[in-house]
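Encoded backbone
================
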Amino acid sequence: MQQLELGFGLDGGPRTLVDDASGKIVYAPGIVAPETAAGWFALLRDTIDWQHERRPMYDRIVDVPRLTAHFGPGAVWPQPLRAAQRVAERFAGVRFNSAGLNLYRDGNDSVAMHNDHTAELIDGSPVLLISLGGTRRMRIHSKALPRQTFDVALEPGSVLLMAGASQRHWEHGIPKTRGHADARISLAFRLRPTG
């Protein structure tokens, strides 16, 4: 298993984790200035109508271990989310029309390994994440064996771009963490069909 740890102390710009027939995954720290990222985090944390979801898992209904919010075409997007959308669009070269927000309140909040449902996206369109608040580790691994794995420390103001066939060949998740973890908001920008 190949494992690569990225995070603090990176000198330079974006780091390409994958760029082949299985897709393209790029991590770019410092895309949003620290004071801007902190301002967006505080405004979104305090003003969004965060939802606590429940969903079926195996033979029972369980709490989703994070808070969520969604904004699609026609919705009124709060100003910080519109500003983040412009950053995402400049980075990816795509006009996104959907944003999914996740609030990880502490180290107990998480998201299991998954890929985005490609049937809900414009074919071949990228997914771009902007991280705000505390740094959390994202695990990315290939679906194919032998498994290739990356652990990426998603810093505030960073971008993670998943493009091409990456959603078909790779999974990503935010594992629970022991010890203290500051609250984090993930902004996931997508291009969904509108018709």
Helices lie at 34-47, 79-92, 166-169. The first helix runs from residue 34 to 47.
